[in-house]
Sequence to fold (305 residues):
Amino acid sequence: MLTVPAFLVEKDPASFAQLRQAKARYPKIEVIPLDGKMEDHAAAIAASIPQQSFSFTLIDPKGFPAIGSMMPLLRRQNAEALVNFMFDFANRFGGTDLIPTLEAWLSTSAPDDWRERIRAVSGEQREQLYEELAVEALRRTPGYVYAPVITVDKVLHNRALYKLIFLTRHSEGLKVYRDSERSALDAQATTRSALKAKKRDAGRLMDDLFADGSDAIPNDRSTQVVRRSEAEALRRLQAMLTNASSGFCTWKECWPMILAELSVTHSWLGRQVNDLRKAGQISAPGWPSERTQIPRDEQRLKWSG
Fold:
């Protein structure tokens, strides 16, 4: 029988008491509640996990943890992680030395002038720079190949609240992540749009007569991310196939590179390949059958449009 231990760390007394109750609710999971800060337990938790076992680490702090103390868990080779980076706080306090753990996190893999670079930009450029600093600190040291990010927005404002950074060394983990991300972005767009509409109604604004539709689902920031990613994914796919030195690329050579940087799913991209094949723009010798919707990893592809 497979044993799944779950180490749950909490320093708030009330929340820790709830963790103790979780042991009874989930009898198939070996729940191990630990009192205190995760930084204080990370090394011991990592040491207790057999080397060949897979571990998934969720770091969801109320502030900024001492990221160096998390490295025993993050450096495990057979591991993945999801880390919450509190962007809204970082945007307000980064570079001020008011939160030492934040400064240490951002400085881990950053150039010496990172504070000056942040002060020199604003808006989306500043957000992107913070994201890059946070991601590189987590990805480079433990050697993760992929580190995609989901942006969770403020409910009523078109600004980022926090960033969920996923860490994996394997393309299959990336594939599963992008499926989950798409569901999350769709849900976020629906929820934000509904709450904004409700707020307008409460304020007695004349929605249909004067509203510009900026709160509707097609215009939500999450939906825009997906729309831009899909357009860019098709451009990159065409460029990869057009510039292939041998004339052909395998599907496995294409999709991880695209999913690593863009918010598209493996199945969506695969179906686009099939549609382009049917339209005569992609050559795919040996395509199994017309019922095949998504290429196999070894499928050879060539741009012929």
In short: The chain has a mean pLDDT of 91. DSSP finds twelve helices and nine strands in the chain. Residues 37-169 form one domain.
